[in-house]
Amino acid sequence: WEGLQNFLSTDRTPLYCGSNRGSTKGFRKSYKNFHFYWILGAGHFVPVDQPCVALNMIGAFTQSPAVST
């Protein structure tokens, strides 16, 4: 993939939920239209383990961000 070196050199962005900036829930690394997510404390069923992060991630994919409570 011609974008590999750019993707690898891109910093990952921490993911938070709500106003709690003291607890990192995961990380996202993006280059152009490729996005890689590390979700901390989650297994294969992210919506059960980290529902807030899952909602934000799906909102980003669909470009219709939802508000989690």
From TrEMBL:
Gene3D superfamilies: alpha/beta hydrolase (3.40.50.1820). InterPro entries: AB_hydrolase_fold, Peptidase_S10. Coiled coil: none annotated. GO terms for molecular function: serine-type carboxypeptidase activity. One of its GO terms (biological process) is proteolysis. Belongs to the peptidase S10 family. This is Serine carboxypeptidase. It comes from Castanea mollissima (Chinese chestnut). The lineage of its organism: Eukaryota, Viridiplantae, Streptophyta, Embryophyta, Tracheophyta.
